[in-house]
Design goal:
heterodimer, A: Heat Shock Protein 90, B: alpha/beta, 5 strands, globular
Chain lengths: 559, 150
């Protein structure tokens, strides 16, 4: 007995908590399987993505730094060379030579081998043009620069490079101005800033990136690649003008800034993280989709496997419970049966003596003088009653002996259908009296089985009697025989009231009866049970779908 | 009617005494034995015609008494009257050749009827034995055999 309870958890012993126990186990297994399978997947995906982004950032930072440095150097070099060249000429020639018509043109042509100088002007100390070479001679002929800021500055410090401006001419340019060593005149060149644009345009900052130069006021000195006309408010704070090379990292972009032209200007290179990583994000999205699919698959497979596994476990447990119940039941029946038989044996002797003593007293009465016996008739009636009750008690004890009856050596091949027909023939009269129809639904090809026909008939008789009692008057009993699943089965279905839950459990227990006291001993079905067990078969009861009880007796089919 | 010599064997003294008295009332004289030893002793002294035997007794039990009686005195008709027998006991008793096997409680009238029938059977058996012997002496062995078989 213990081996059954040991393997079934205590909480599984009642039906309701058993269900929740299996459901709990199912959930637990599913969760564990999913965690074990999916967590590494998520971890790998996260680390891969994280490390890829980090290495991309590192690489891009290095590239941006070297790009910024090289561009700054080139532009600074260019500005220096323009300034130095102009200063050189200012030292080399004097005002008189430069004023001489034709000389300034020669100088312009010599300087402008690169083609970046737009015009060249010679301005006297009072701010008026002395000489001019360039496309805007008419416009600038009477222009006086005395009041302009750059003129004041160049007269003061000797050299000046302006911010980029569009000026009269509608093209971005800047001016470089130098004075002669005595600061009595100014040589001024307008230089096309298109060169910067080309330099910055060739900087590789990736899709969505930008490269431009800012002046002190944060104004764009070169056009933005993405069409900015002014710096957005968010970037203004981020990009302190001037200073050494700095890398800024915002949510969406990576910036490299460096001061140039003596920190008057700031070179800004910007790489757009989102656009640059677009391919990576697409790949990552695809990865996420794959992981989600894999997770779903794992979830499905895990749930399916766990469910089918747990169902099998549950089935096995239930089968074991049924087996356990059957063994326990069968042991109980055997014990009660043996006890009943022993009690019957012990009671038979005293019954015999009671009957004999009473019979003897009755006979002794015959020898008495009838005149002296006042109650002779009462005595005789009492003796008759004792005799009747002894007979009644002995029928019960003899039935109880059925529990200890052995079937060894009494088995012979028998046809179940024939046995059924014979049994029915005993009961036909009683059935007719109670208007109970007996219907047969017999499988004609039933094979013979080796059994004890007399005892099996008693079983059938007990079941049918029971059915009759359940029906009372007016009803039907259907007897069916069939084969299947290695079994030969006889079913007796009545259309009586059926049994309660309690009744279904206890109907085979000795002394269980639904009949009113005194009309049944409650041992017929118990004996039937022990007989069928001894004959190697089984007997079960259930309530029929259309009401009433169905008793099913079955034996293994002969091999 | 001939006197039938009856031996009642049962360890229940109340029962056997009453039974003996009641048989007396029906003109059937009987002797009683309370156990197997007494029974076998009586049988050795004076062979009864019919023996009413209980199976469950202390010492030599009814089945053993039956076995010995059938071996030594095959003409004694034995009626088993028991409250303990199961069908294996019954089968064994019948195999040993009891005249009948009755389950307690047994009505006195039935017992009396069985005793008388048993006695008659014994007489018939002896008669047929005698006749068979006569046939055998006359050389008609087949007829004698058939008679004994019956």
């Amino acid at each position: 007995m213990k081996m059954y309870t040991a393997t079934i958890p205590g909480s599984a012993l009642t039906v309701r908590s058993r269900e929740s126990y299996y459901a709990r186990q199912k959930r637990l297994f599913v969760v564990v399987v999913i965690l074990v399978a999916i967590i590494p997947l998520l971890f790998i995906s996260w680390t891969a993505s994280h490390f890829y982004q980090k290495s991309w950032l590192n690489k891009t930072t290095v590239e941006l730094t070297s790009l910024a440095n090289s561009r700054r150097e080139i532009i600074d070099l260019f500005l220096d060379s323009q300034e130095n060249m102009l200063a050189g000429y200012a030292e080399l020639y004097d005002l008189a030579w430069l004023r001489t018509p034709g000389n300034l043109e020669k100088l312009f042509q010599a300087m402008n081998r690169q083609g970046v100088i737009v015009d060249l002007g010679l301005i006297a100390q009072d701010g008026s043009h002395c000489n001019y070479v360039g496309p805007f001679a008419e416009d600038l002929k009477d222009k006086n620069y005395a009041e302009t800021r750059w003129f004041a500055e160049v007269m003061q410090s000797g050299r000046y490079i302006s911010d980029v401006f569009t000026g009269y001419r509608g093209v971005p340019h800047f001016i470089v101005a130098v004075t002669d060593p005595t600061r009595s005149w100014v040589l001024r060149a307008t230089i096309n800033s298109g060169l910067f644009n080309a330099l910055l345009a060739s900087a590789e900052v990736g899709p969505g990136g930008d490269a431009f130069i800012l002046n002190h006021q944060g104004e764009l000195q070169t056009p933005s690649r993405v069409g900015l006309t002014a710096l957005p408010a968010g970037e203004k704070g981020l990009l302190a003008t001037g200073g050494d090379l700095t890398i800024h990292h915002s949510q969406s972009a990576l910036y490299a800034t460096t001061g140039m032209k003596n920190n008057a200007w700031t070179l800004v290179l910007k790489t757009d993280i989102k656009t640059s990583l677009a391919d990576f994000y697409r790949a990552r999205q695809r990865d996420h989709l794959i992981i989600a699919c894999a997770a779903l698959l794992i979830l499905g497979v895990a749930t399916f496997l766990v469910r089918s596994m747990m169902n099998k476990v549950e089935d096995a447990d239930q089968q074991r419970m049924v087996l356990y119940d059957r063994i326990r039941n069968s042991e109980k029946m055997a014990l009660v049966g043996r006890m009943a038989a022993n009690v019957a044996h012990e009671i038979n002797n005293p019954l015999q003596i009671i009957g004999d003593q009473a019979g003897w007293l009755n006979e002794l009465l015959d020898e008495e003088d009838p005149a002296s016996l006042k109650n002779s008739e009462e005595y005789r009636a009492a003796f008759a009653k004792i005799k009747a009750q002894v007979k009644r008690a002995s029928t019960i004890t003899h039935r109880l002996l059925g529990f200890s009856r052995s079937t060894d050596g009494l088995k012979a091949p028998a046809n179940i259908n024939t046995l059924v027909e014979e049994t029915v023939s005993f009961l036909e009269k009683e059935a007719a009296n109670h208007r109970i129809a007996i219907r047969r639904n017999l499988d004609p090809d039933l094979p013979a089985i080796t059994t004890d026909s007399a005892q099996l008939q008693q079983v059938f008789l007990n079941i049918l009697n029971n059915a009759f009692d359940a029906i009372g008057n007016d009803g039907a009993v259907t007897i069916s025989t069939s084969r299947g699943n290695g079994q030969l089965a006889v079913e007796f279905a009545d259309n009586g009231p059926g049994l309660s839950e309690e009744g279904l459990k206890k109907v085979f227990e000795p002394f269980f009866t639904t009949k009113k006291a005194g009309s049944g001993t409650g041992i017929g079905l118990a004996i039937s049970y022990s007989i069928v067990e001894r004959l190697g078969g089984g007997i079960e009861v259930r309530n029929g779908r259309q009401g009433g009880c169905v008793f099913r007796v079955h034996f293994p089919l002969p091999a | 009617m001939d006197d039938i010599k009856i031996l009642l064997v049962d360890d229940e003294e109340d029962f056997i005494r009453t039974l003996s008295e009641r048989l007396d009332l029906r003109d059937l004289g009987s002797k009683t034995a309370l156990n197997g030893e007494q029974a076998l002793g009586y049988v050795g002294e004076k062979e009864p015609d019919v023996m009413v035997l209980d199976l469950k007794m202390p010492g030599i039990d009814g089945m053993e008494v039956l076995r010995r009686v059938r071996q030594i005195y095959p003409n004694i008709q034995v009626i088993i009257q028991t409250g303990h027998g199961n069908d294996l006991d019954e089968a064994e008793a019948r195999r040993l050749g009891v005249f009948d096997y009755l389950k307690k409680p047994v009505d006195i009238e039935i017992l009396v009827e069985r005793i008388k029938t048993a006695h008659q059977a014994k007489k018939n058996l002896l008669d047929s034995s005698a006749t068979a012997a006569a046939f055998a002496e006359a050389g008609e062995y087949d007829t004698a055999k058939t008679m004994l078989k019956q």
